[in-house]
């Protein structure tokens, strides 16, 4: 699909990997809706890229529907969905005081990262399936954001790894399910990237993490994630695939 002129939705588009992807889509000519729980930051990004900002909690169906309606009113029906919103967590199963990890923490991460992504995707797919087909019968494309933690999660990452592993497992069946509607589905599993969250860590910690990456021995750039996300859109034969973007990193247990 040619990105130029098409409407795109980016969840988590107000910062980090989502912001970089929103900016790259806009640079390539897409009409971009920045969906995020942080409306003020979403408005800032949207203003800079000529897009529209939409308050959006992906765990809330009404919130997603309202955001999609606002985006459609501004840009027309979307053919591109970038699922990038997500949260992290690290909890030992048995904590230092001997108590079990709180179930609420596990459930929250699964609900946002996995259920929330499915929620946004199902609503997008239902709308996209109604659109007229483009070349090759394609109607749209969506991307999930997993993580290398889906494959080699570290100590304490049970919730995060399970949520991202769920996205990996959902990729192929979702692609097969939506093939009849001409909607493609792919997933990116990023490694260690220089995001605002990462930059909150002390500089020596960041350097140590970067040194663990075989090549190039540095943190990934959000722009590199965005470039791959946009390539998925433009390469119509990419479907049902999970792509690691990690510089050959394999995470150690700790």
Report how far the terminal alpha carbons are from each other: 41 Å
Which class do the helix and strand fractions yield?
A: alpha/beta
Averaged pLDDT, please?
96
**Count of β-strands:** 7
Write the element-wise H/E pattern from the N-terminal end onward. Answer: EHEHEHEHEHHEHHHE
CATH class: Alpha Beta
SS strand fraction? 15-25%
Question: Radius of gyration, Cα only, in angstroms?
Answer: 18 Å
Assigned CATH architecture:
3-Layer(aba) Sandwich
Large-scale geometry: globular
Helical residue percent band? 40-55%
Instruction: Briefly note the CATH topology name.
Output: Rossmann fold
Main sheet: which strands, in order across?
A: 3-2-1-4-5-6-7
Unreliable runs: none
CATH superfamily: NAD(P)-binding Rossmann-like Domain
State the gist of this model.
The protein is α/β, with parallel strands linked by helices.
What does this structure look like?
This protein is α/β, with parallel strands linked by helices. The protein has one domain (7-245): NAD(P)-binding Rossmann-like Domain (Rossmann fold, 3-Layer(aba) Sandwich). Helix content is 45%, strand content 15%. The protein has helices at residues 16-27, 39-49, 61-75, 103-128, 149-152, 158-178, 196-199, 203-211, 222-234, and strands at residues 7-11, 31-36, 52-55, 78-83, 140-145, 183-190, 242-245. It has a 7-stranded parallel β-sheet, with helices on both faces. Helix 4 (103-128) links the parallel strand 4 and strand 5 (140-145). The longest helix has 26 residues, at 103-128. The radius of gyration is 18 Å and the shape is globular. The relative contact order is 0.14.
